[in-house]
Design a protein that fits this description.
By secondary structure, the protein is α+β, with helices and mostly antiparallel strands. The chain has two domains: 148 residues, Hotdog Thioesterase (Thiol Ester Dehydrase, Chain A, Roll), CATH 3.10.129; 105 residues, Roll (Thiol Ester Dehydrase, Chain A), CATH 3.10.129.10. The protein has six helices and ten strands; from the N terminus they run E-H-H-E-E-E-E-H-H-E-H-H-E-E-E-E. The protein has a ten-stranded antiparallel beta sheet with strand order 1-3-4-5-2-7-10-9-8-6. It is globular and about 50 Å long. The mean pLDDT is 93.
Length: 253
């Protein structure tokens, strides 16, 4: 970490087998690195996973927006800066900058988290009941140029695909990993699309948890060229995730 403890900085290298077929770091690794940095930084400041677990609480991801100017490629070193920028009622904002060794910015991300009580499954009022270590970590002086989340509208009643959830979908909290949803959503478009286009923005709003053995149906609406809205629903119609994906022609395309 840097001297400014309110910002955590973490170094990664895009290794072979961590990239997609075009040599870009896969969204599985990039997304999980962002979440890992949040966990590491929270732990270093004293309010991470172990602290929350010991007090009967858990940090839950509510929203994630990632905007990438370009993706790191095989062999690239990139750094993730992350910091808590705001606390309001039951939620907190955590921001990210993804940058290269040469000073260029690959992209930015924003996320919204809540701290829930395991017993009641209800979120805490962070302004009133938040850990003093957490409240002291907030840095409201730095922001990122990411457009706020929009409204996802999917009216189709015919799913593009239905998947069954298995062991490899599940994380330590015993429900489907947040980034696993991104992989399933990107799989809704053919490989050929990613040969000529880059994913510029992914927006995720998490509504409900999914457990191993459940079925997920993916409903898709194209709202503009290269822009797709997706709603993920459990059997019975319960919404699990609302998402949007924006692609742009790649330089190679």
């Amino acid at each position: 970490m840097e001297k400014n403890r309110k910002t955590g900085t973490y170094r990664y290298t895009v290794l072979p087998f961590q990239e997609d077929f075009a040599g870009r770091v896969s969204w599985f690794f990039l997304g999980n690195h962002l979440l890992r940095c949040a966990s590491l930084h929270a732990g270093e400041l004293g309010f991470g996973y172990e602290r929350a677990k010991a007090t009967g609480h858990a940090w839950v991801l509510s929203r994630l927006v990632v905007e990438m100017k370009e993706m790191p490629r095989t062999g690239d070193v990139y750094y993730v800066d992350t910091w808590v920028s705001r606390v309001y009622r039951q939620f907190t904002d955590r921001l990210y900058e993804i940058r290269g060794e040469d000073g260029r910015t690959f992209g930015y991300a924003t996320s919204i988290w809540s701290l829930i009580d395991y017993r009641t499954r209800r979120p805490l009022d962070l302004q009133r009941d938040g850990d003093p270590l957490f409240l002291a970590s907030v840095d409201g002086t730095r922001t990122v140029p990411v457009a706020p989340p929009g409204r996802v509208r999917v009216r189709t009643e015919e799913p593009r695909r239905t998947v069954h959830t298995y062991y490899s979908d599940i994380d330590i909290n015993n429900h489907v990993n947040s980034i696993r949803y991104i992989e399933h959503i990107l799989d809704l478009l053919p490989k050929e699309t990613y040969a000529t286009h880059d994913v510029r923005r992914i927006e995720m709003a998490f509504c409900n948890e999914t457990y191993c053995g459940e079925d997920l149906s993916f409903y898709v609406a194209q709202r503009a060229p290269g822009a797709y809205d997706v709603e993920v629903r459990k059997t019975g119609g319960t919404p699990v995730v609302r998402a949007s994906v924006v692609l742009a022609p790649s330089e190679a395309g």
